[in-house]
Amino acid sequence: MKFKEISTDEKSSDFLVSLLEDVSKNFNIKRLIYANTPGSFMGLKVAYVVLKTFSIVKGCEFLAVSGFELNGGGAIRANKKLCFVKKDDEILLEVATPSEFSLPLNLEVLNLKNDTLPNYIIQAV
Fold first, then answer.
1. What top-level branch of life does the organism fall under (predicted)?
2. 98 in helix, strand or coil?
């Protein structure tokens, strides 16, 4: 099976709903997996609310995974200067070069969690 890559510079709040509408027209979605950490308050909250609502409406399983599992444990951009880095099971903000993300060929290798609540690293101001 080939996967279509979709990327955008739009904010997730603008893009996610239209993406899910398009995907649900063409596919029978049985499981949603999203990265519930690390991230900012608004980014994770928007993703969680939209995807949780979609999973309830469509009756599909909803699971979470750490973003660090999708980039080999590398740094994840937090803002223009700082990145989230994982050290000894603690997530910190540091100046670092962000790593690229990629989906594994087999989703069974991911440490999927039923606890899908966002794990905020940068709290609301």
1. Bacteria
2. coil
Per residue in 28-58, pLDDT tens? 899 999 999 998 888 889 889 999 999 999 9
Q: Which domain holds residue 51?
A: 12-71+102-109
Q: What does DSSP say about strands 76-77 and 90-94: parallel, antiparallel, or unpaired?
A: unpaired
Please state the domain count of the chain.
Answer: 1
C-alpha radius of gyration, the chain, whole number: 15
Please check the confidence at residue 13 and state whether its pLDDT lies above 90. no
Whether 46 is covered by a domain: the verdict is yes
Residue 32 CA: distances (Å) to CA of 3, 93, 101, 112: 15, 28, 18, 11
Within a domain: 47:
yes
Q: Does 2 fall in a domain?
A: no
